[in-house]
């Protein structure tokens, strides 16, 4: 290599290094493999579990990067003994779409205590013979997805039983940068079973932008749980990463959360489950299709087209929902389906408010929502405002700005990445 060639090469390297800070963070999001907390715990020789009888709160999403079940990994781990399993909504295999009974795990022979049946929190009897509780479940980054409630209730049970609580962290599929949606001001009543408040367990935004480990840290300190908490962080995860940048296999966290697009829409459009509509459960377009036998899909699509909702468009469609226990099962529904999605421009909460308002405007005598709409949106005045002439979804969303800014400041104390 000549001196001139060498100098040119050095200059190019220096220019590249100077240019790196100007590049968007998204370009580096997939720079390396993400190792979930279970992989990190295994690398550490299961140090936190040594000499302990372990209770594991998990389901089918609790897996290592190479696909091994967290149940199997801990069951075979040296120096500890797995004695009990605890399952959230949808059961240990993620197949149930109703209340779940306690049972015995077919593969391991261990008891599986349901936390979505007669009770939603571990009872003293369930914790008998358990020295430490470990939590490993993949969440989807939405306040009203019940796994967050299971986390909080289990932490309280661990506190009351005077045993440590460990969270094996996993990615937030929606990334960890954006914080959107209302923060509930009215707590749900909590029944003895703990199930009453499970869809709105703490006042956090609908899209909170935190991992389960980070939420556990926030819950423990800000909401007075005070359990002996340890979080095993991931390796390689960055806040700009959506799930498809992690290199991890997508496993449906619940029967109808079938892809990342559905998860991205869920914080906003998922609130339409509280209306007299089908959201396509049981079809391949669950949470991408919204309608009912009485809906005029073409009229709905025209209404939505006039709104120019950022990052999303809709087209008329028809579908037949098949999920048991959900509206219009087996009946042909007309409505609208998501035609295009730009996740960088989309505000899913704003899009959900637009969709609800468009259904009301198109079918004012037929379209209704239940009280659950206010619970899931997190603002019990939202539906009343959306029905008023001249009030836009953006007007509704702006009501939440001040509390969102306060939350961002609080959450900063608990971020791990």
From TrEMBL:
<dbReference type="Pfam" id="PF20732">
    <property type="entry name" value="NamZ_C"/>
</dbReference>
<dbReference type="InterPro" id="IPR048502">
    <property type="entry name" value="NamZ_N"/>
</dbReference>
<dbReference type="InterPro" id="IPR048503">
    <property type="entry name" value="NamZ_C"/>
</dbReference>
<protein>
    <submittedName>
        <fullName>DUF1343 domain-containing protein</fullName>
    </submittedName>
</protein>
<dbReference type="Pfam" id="PF07075">
    <property type="entry name" value="NamZ_N"/>
</dbReference>
<feature type="domain" description="Peptidoglycan beta-N-acetylmuramidase NamZ N-terminal">
    <location>
        <begin position="54"/>
        <end position="260"/>
    </location>
</feature>
<feature type="domain" description="Peptidoglycan beta-N-acetylmuramidase NamZ C-terminal">
    <location>
        <begin position="264"/>
        <end position="417"/>
    </location>
</feature>
<dbReference type="InterPro" id="IPR008302">
    <property type="entry name" value="NamZ"/>
</dbReference>
């Amino acid at each position: 290599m000549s001196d001139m060639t060498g100098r040119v090469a050095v200059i190019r390297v220096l220019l590249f290094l100077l240019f790196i800070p100007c590049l968007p963070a998204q370009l580096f999001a997939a720079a390396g493999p993400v190792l979930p907390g279970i992989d990190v715990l295994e690398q550490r020789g299961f140090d936190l579990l040594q000499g302990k009888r372990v209770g594991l709160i998990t389901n089918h999403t609790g897996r290592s990067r190479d696909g091994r079940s967290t149940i199997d990994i801990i069951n075979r781990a040296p120096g500890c003994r797995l004695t009990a399993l605890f399952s959230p909504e949808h059961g240990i295999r993620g197949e149930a779409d109703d209340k779940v009974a306690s049972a015995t795990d077919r593969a391991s022979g261990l008891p599986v205590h349901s936390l979505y049946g007669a009770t939603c929190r571990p009872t003293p009897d369930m914790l008998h013979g358990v020295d430490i509780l470990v939590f490993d479940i993949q969440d989807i980054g939405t306040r009203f997805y019940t796994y967050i409630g299971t986390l909080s209730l289990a932490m309280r049970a661990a506190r009351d039983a005077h045993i440590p609580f460990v969270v094996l962290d996993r990615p937030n599929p929606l990334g960890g940068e954006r914080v959107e949606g209302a923060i509930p001001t009215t707590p749900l009543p909590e029944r003895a079973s703990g199930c009453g408040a499970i869809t709105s367990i703490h006042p956090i935004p609908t899209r909170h932008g935190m991992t389960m480990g980070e939420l556990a840290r926030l819950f423990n300190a800000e909401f007075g749980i005070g359990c002996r908490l340890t979080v095993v962080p991931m390796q390689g995860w960055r806040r700009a990463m959506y799930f498809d940048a992690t290199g991890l296999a997508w496993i449906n966290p619940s029967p109808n959360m079938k892809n990342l697009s559905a998860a991205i829409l869920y914080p906003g459009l998922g609130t339409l489950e509280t209306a007299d509509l089908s959201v396509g459960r049981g079809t391949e377009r669950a949470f991408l299709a919204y309608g009912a036998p009485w809906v005029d899909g073409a009229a709905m699509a025209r209404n939505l087209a006039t709104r120019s909702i950022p990052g999303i468009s809709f087209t008329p469609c028809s579908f037949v929902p098949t999920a048991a226990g959900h509206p219009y099962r087996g009946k042909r529904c007309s409505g609208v389906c998501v035609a295009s999605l730009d996740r960088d421009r989309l505000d899913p909460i704003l899009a959900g408010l637009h969709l609800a308002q468009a259904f009301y405007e198109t079918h004012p005598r037929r379209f209704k929502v239940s009280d659950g709409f206010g619970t899931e949106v997190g603002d019990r005045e939202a539906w009343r405002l959306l029905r008023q002439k001249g009030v836009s979804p953006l007007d509704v969303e702006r009501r939440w700005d001040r509390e969102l800014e306060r939350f961002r400041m609080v959450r900063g104390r608990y971020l791990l990445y």
